[in-house]
Structure formats: C-alpha cells, structure tokens
Write a structure and sequence with these properties.
This protein is 68% helix and 0% strand. With 361 residues, the protein is mainly alpha-helical. Keywords: Cell membrane, Endosome, Ion transport, Magnesium, Membrane, Transmembrane, Transmembrane helix, Transport.
C-alpha cells in the first residue's frame, strides 16, 4: 500500500498520469481546446455550404462576389468559428501552450470527416490514416503534458517575460522578422513560401505568449483579483493586437500567393514548433518534467505533424487513380468553381489568434 501511494504521488508530481497527473486547470484547458477544435472544424463546413448556396443564386466569392454576406448559413459558420476561437483563447489561460497548441490539428479531423459526410468530399484511405495519426499524437501529448504553473498576478507573468532567456529569444525573433520583412520579402516573397510563413510563425510565437498572459490576467480578474489596474496587462494587450495584425497581413499574402494545401502544413509545423519553444523558455514547462516525458511529448508532436502532412498531401486524391498521376491543386478555385479552401488549422487568418492557416473567404 505504501508503495502504491508513493507511486501515485510521484506520478502526480511528474504530470504523467491521467488521473493524478492532470490538474484541474489542465483539464479545463483540455476541454476548451477540444471544444475549440470541434467548433472551428465544423465552422468551415457550414461556411462552405453557405458559400455554395450563395454562389448558386449570386456572384461567387471566388470571383469577387459578396452575396454570401446575405446568406444566414455562412453567418452561422462565422459565429461557430468565433465561438471556437474564444474557447481556444480561454484554453491558454488554463493550460500550457505545449498542450493547447498541438491540439489545433484536431480541427483537421473534424473538418475532413464532416466534409466526407456533408459535402461528399471523399476522404482518401491515406487521409483516414492521417486522422488516426493526429489522434494518436494528440493523445500522447495530452497524457504527458506538463502542469500549468501557479500564477497569482500579471506582474508575475511580466517577470517571466523579462528574464534574460526570453528577452534573448524575443530579440532574435524581432531581428529575424525585420530582416525577412525589409530584406527578403521584396525580393523573394512571391517565389519562396518560407518568407511569408517565417514572418507569421515568428510573430505568432510571441502572440501566443501575449495571449496567454492576457488570458491569465482576465482569469484572475474574473476570480476577484483585478489585474486591469496593472500597466503590464495593457502592454500585453497592445502586443497581442500588433502581432495579430502582422500575422493576418502576411498570412493572407501567403494564402494569396501559394496553394493553401502547401501553406497550411508548413505554417502549422513552424508555428507550433516556435510556440512550444517560446513557452518552454518563458514558462519553463519542461522544468517540471523528466526526460522521458519530454521525449514522449516530442514523439507525439512528430506524430501529429506526420498525420497533418499526410492528410493535406492526399486530401485531393481519388481512390483508383494511378499513383504516378500528378495531382495539381489550383490556387483560387476548385473544380466546381468555388473558392479553394484548405482543411483548417487554427490561425490568425480570420482575425483571431492562435493556430494555423485557413483560406480567407
């Protein structure tokens, strides 16, 4: 009995057990992140049905029409997406970024499955395998995610953000961003996909840290400890706004220049990797874990990346086609004439932060 008790206590302290290891805040963040994935994944299907319905009796969005603004179904999809993004924002206030951010890949599964059921867009067998890999990777990360550290004021978050290690990371990010914007984008922006995506991913890692800080401030304020009187809260708010606007600008440029099916997996990989790195540096997520748990989380992350890549790579394949037949994905319109839409990864493309790209309607 004593051995069992000590084992349970050790598992709880290490964060590796589902029952003892996950704190109440981690569970709340997990539920919010899963809800966010469902709402955002479903919103793309509802919006696309609204686009098709509006295009049947007006000018299609793919050729510059705005008749979808009069379509209730499209607005239902937008409201669903906003609900999902709000849930995602709240998830960062309760759980570490290393848990919340990778779960954005689950919206791919929701969208792919609903597209197969509601839009009759056939999901290839390799796409199903990609979905399975995303589920396995997400489950692995959830079961081994670190505990959310206890923070009692936004000033404490500011202290973490102003430590030398994170200041060094932020300086590198800002320097790299300015170099990309002023040196490489004018010359290579229209030909090299990594230029636009690099800016979005670098800035995105800072935006997630600021969103998490702002979320913590709001959570504490709603619990009775007013954080709005601290100037740090408003400074984090300014950083969030600036980062989101920057992400929106360059992500839309990337989506307008390159195929969504190419932009989405690359952006998801870079954005999630840099976000996890920033969280590890600022919030010291891995300080509360042993090497085995860290290695397991990284394996889960690589599994998600593999599933995401496989799902995007095969999403336009049709069973029975010769494997050597080239599949070309048009940039602006699909074979029905409607605007091309990538399977969603959460992002700032719609004006709300966090998670990876989607095509703008």
């Amino acid at each position: 009995m004593a051995t069992e008790a000590s084992t349970s206590a050790a598992a709880g302290a290490g964060g590796g057990s589902w029952v003892e290891g996950m704190s109440a805040d981690n569970i709340k963040g997990l539920v919010l992140a899963l809800s966010s994935s469902f709402f955002i994944g479903a919103s793309f299907i509802v919006k696309k049905k609204g686009l098709k319905k509006a295009g049947a009796c007006g000018v299609r969005a793919g050729v510059g029409g705005y008749s979808y603004l009069y379509e209730p179904l499209w607005w239902a999809g937008m409201i669903t997406m906003i609900v999902g993004e709000v849930a995602n924002f709240a998830a960062y206030a309760f759980a570490p970024a290393i848990l919340v951010t990778p779960l954005g890949a689950l919206s791919i599964i929701i969208s792919a499955v609903l597209a197969d059921i509601m839009l009759k867009e056939k999901l290839h067998i390799f796409g199903i395998l990609g979905c399975v890999l995303c589920v396995v990777g997400s489950t692995t990360i959830v079961l081994h995610a670190p505990q959310e550290r206890e923070i009692e004021s936004v000033a404490e978050v500011w202290d973490l953000a102003t430590e030398p290690a994170f200041l060094f990371y932020a300086a590198i990010v800002l320097a790299a961003t300015f170099v990309l914007i002023f040196r490489f984008i004018p010359q290579y922006g229209q030909t090299h996909i990594m230029v636009y995506i690099g800016v979005c991913s670098l800035v995105g890692s800072l935006s997630v840290m600021s969103v998490k800080a702002l979320g913590i401030a709001l959570k504490l304020t709603f619990s009775g400890m007013n954080q709005l009187m601290y100037p740090q809260t408003w400074l984090f708010t300014i950083v969030v706004v600036v980062c989101i606007l920057t992400q929106m600008n360059y992500l839309n440029k990337a989506l307008d220049t390159f195929n969504t099916a190419v932009v989405s997996p690359i952006y998801y990989t870079m954005f999630t990797s840099l976000t996890i790195l920033a969280s590890v540096i600022m919030f010291k997520d891995w300080d509360r874990q042993n090497p085995t748990q860290i290695a397991t989380e990284m394996c889960g992350f690589v599994t998600i990346l593999s599933g995401t890549f496989l799902l995007h790579k095969t999403k336009d394949m049709v069973d029975g086609l010769p494997p050597t037949l080239p599949i070309r994905i048009p940039k602006y319109a699909d074979e029905d004439g409607y605007a091309a839409e990538g399977i969603p990864l959460r992002s700032a493309a719609e004006g709300i932060p966090l998670r990876s790209p989607r095509a703008a309607e």
